[in-house]
Amino acid sequence: MTDPFMETLGLKVRHLAPGEAVVAGVVGEGHLNLHGTVHGGFLYALADSAFALASNSRGPAVALSCRMDYFRPLLPGAEVEARAKEVNLSRRTATYQVELLSEGKAIALFTGTVFRLGGEEG
Q1: Taking a C-beta distance cutoff of 8 angstroms, is the pair 73, 38 a contact?
Q2: Global pTM?
Q3: Which helix (H) or strand (E) holds 51?
Q4: Distances in whole angstroms, Cα of residue 118 to Cα of each of 3, 58, 85, 90, 114
Q5: How many separate helices (H) and strands (E) can be counted in the chain?
Q6: I want to staple 84 with a disulfide (CB 3.0 to 4.6 A). Which of 54, 69, 71, 121 is the partner?
Q7: Which positions fall inside the Thioesterase domain (predicted)?
Q8: Which residues contact 52 (CB under 8 A, 6 or more apart)?
Q9: How far apart are CA 115 and CA 93, in angstroms?
């Protein structure tokens, strides 16, 4: 399962199950900032894609809030993986944590909460 934005960025779904998702990408020349390292927007989009897939695996959901902490830069050619996992599920909301990893090292951490449109507890 992908969407046009994910395809544009070259992101691939590696795993999808209820409440979890893994999405991966490779840092390309078009993903760089003015310092020559990965742009935070690319990492955010990667994390947000895993977040969206994990949260919508329980039924339709829309983001209420998101936060991202960046730990280290990446250079072109680096492979990065976003691993989303559900940390709280209620009838109307759910919260997910997304770890971004490259070569086993933490690159960034994303946390997001969704409003569940279906409202059924998983």
Answers
A1: yes
A2: 0.93
A3: helix 40-56
A4: 21, 9, 19, 11, 12
A5: 2, 6
A6: 54
A7: 35-104
A8: 63
A9: 5
The amino acid occupying position 60 is P
pLDDT digit string, tens, across residues 57-109: 999 999 999 999 999 999 999 999 999 999 999 999 999 999 999 999 999 99
* H-helix or E-strand spanning residue 5: helix 4-9
Which domains are present in the chain?
4-116 (3.10.129.10)
Tell me the C-alpha distance between 38 and 27, whole Å.
7
| Position 63, amino acid | A
Strand, helix or coil for residue 49: helix
How many residues belong to the chain? Answer: 122
